[in-house]
Structure formats: structure tokens, C-alpha cells
Amino acid sequence: MNKALWSLVSFALFAAGCGSPEQGTTEQASTSPLAASGSTASFTPEEVGEYLVTVGGCHDCHTPGFLEVGWEVPESQYFTGGDFGWTGPWGTTYAPNLRLSVRNLTEDAWVEMLRTRNTLPPMPWMNVNRMHEDDMRAIYRYLVSLGPAGDPAPAALQPGQEPSTPYVVLAPPQGLPE
Fold it and tell me: Which pTM does this prediction carry?
């Protein structure tokens, strides 16, 4: 299975089985200004970025503990990455600390990275690459507004290397037609 398809399948299977503790409730999130207005015109780029990372599920991997306790995670820990690994045929990857990542990039460099990057799963780069440039810029501005915090995530491990951190195994699907 090619890398892009494997990445999509891995992430879709993971996302289908995971969610915040509020999964299944009909209560609307308090951070959905765009849904209420249908327009971004009356919101700052930072507010639009916050909304996009919320509905995009970015917290699930990039905010430590979010999968376990959802919105109980303090904002001071949002997007600080972590040492929780995602292991598969590609090796083990870790969600980077986005609050530190944006410090090393200009806004234009961030947009270029999101538009062109195609690295290891489970990050769904094929979807991120298709985001509108205004959305990419809004996310950058939101992340910058949070300020630096936390430590860099561990480096990715090659296939066959055993992680010393907690991790999930994402195995390739079995029994698929060729």
C-alpha cells in the first residue's frame, strides 16, 4: 500500500475510534464562532485559527492528555506535543510541539511547509496540503498567540527501533483486495 493511502487509512481508523470524552453529545463547543456567523469577517485571525484547530482535531495528537481528558487539559499545555508515539511500518513518529515549531518559522515559511510537506503518518498531510492559505495563516497566528511552552517532541524512530515512550501500534489493514 502506498505511503499516502496508508497514512489516510491509519489516521481514519484511529480517528474513528477516538474522540474527546464528550463524543456523542449534541452540545455545541463553546469555541465555534464561525459556525454561529457563517463568516470569518468579524473574527480575528487568531480566533479563526483557534476554531480551525479545534474542529480539525489537532488537539487529539498535539495536546498531551487530550485524548484522555479532553477540554480538562489546561490551555498552558495546548499544542505542546509530547512523547506519545505512533508506531507502524514507517517506524515511530511523535506529534511535534507546534508552539515551538512556529517560533522557528516565519508565517510565509509556515504556509509553504503546510502546503508542501509530505512526511510520516499518522499526520494527514494530503489533507493539510489542501487547506486554504488564509486558514494556514490563521492557524499560525493562533499558535504564535499562545506563546512558547513545553519541550520538543522526541525524534522519529526508524522501523524496528523499540520506543522508550508510550505508543500505539497502527498496523496495516489485513485482507484488503490487491
Answer: 0.76
